[in-house]
Amino acid sequence: MKISNYSLNDLVWHFSQDYLKAYQHRFEHLPITHIVEDWASPCEQGVYKEEFSLWHPIKVDEELTFDNVEEALEVKLHDDIKQYFTAMYSDSLDASCSEGDLSLLFAWSSKDFSRLQENIIGHILMKTKLKQKLTIFFAITDDDDHIISLDNETGSVWVEKVGCDPHKKIADTLADFISQLTPRIPPKAIEND
Predict the structure, then answer these.
(1) Beta strands in 27-69 (DSSP E)
(2) How confident is the model at residue 192 (pLDDT cuts 50, 70, 90)?
């Protein structure tokens, strides 16, 4: 896929659809997640084995913004991170790249988007307190101490250890990074499968 022909929103959406197809090919049903009674999502598409929701990513059809975060912290967030987190609602999507395995983070619902904003505020305050370069996380790795983040000034993508400055650049842009990912589907839908 030639990156220049697609917007970041398109790349994120295409990756989510590739993930969905690969998951359905392996398990012959939509992805599943544990049902949480007071954490409903427009992504949910029914019940699976009583304790799981079937789900799929959906495009956001309401206006989500980071205006409140930017005003409260007097900082301008990079447009790429704002586009990424407002493109769709989804559970996390597992992926692989040349650097290893990761999970892309998204908001599950508008309620979860508010929680995401609070987590980003906490991350920014930590970075400010530590006098570190401002980054915004958007993925976690299989190593609990490392996250994938976007450099707020340049838009480049980095690996960073939590609480530390980014230490390894892995893409020039978020679009470049998303375009190199492949879906990583679990070997089993649930532990008892």
Answers:
(1) 32-34, 44-48, 52-55, 58-59
(2) low
Q: Per the structure block, which two tokens stand in for 166?
A: 């980014």
The Cα-based distances of 128 to 69, 133, 138, 161 in angstroms read: 14, 8, 18, 16
The answer to whether the predicted template modeling score (pTM) of the entire model surpasses 0.70 is yes
Residue 151 neighbours by CB distance under 10 Å: 18
- Per-domain residue ranges of the chain: 3-183
- pLDDT of 77-131, one tens digit each? 999 999 999 999 999 999 999 889 999 999 999 999 999 999 999 999 999 999 9
State the Cα–Cα distance between residues 122 and 187, nearest whole angstrom.
34
CA dihedral 183, 154, 59, 122 (to 10 degrees): 90
Name the pLDDT band for 166 (thresholds 50, 70, 90).
Answer: very high
- The answer to whether domain 3-183 has CATH 3.40.1580.20 is yes
Q: Of 126, 8, 114, whose CA–CA distance to 137 is shortest? A: 126
Sequence-distant (≥ 6) Cβ neighbours of residue 89 within 8 angstroms: 41, 42, 43, 57, 58, 60, 106, 107, 108, 109, 112
Question: Which residue type does 56 have?
Answer: H
Check residue 6 and give its pLDDT: 78
d(CA 147, CA 140): 5
**Residue 57 exposure: Cα atoms within 13 Å on the Cβ side:** 25
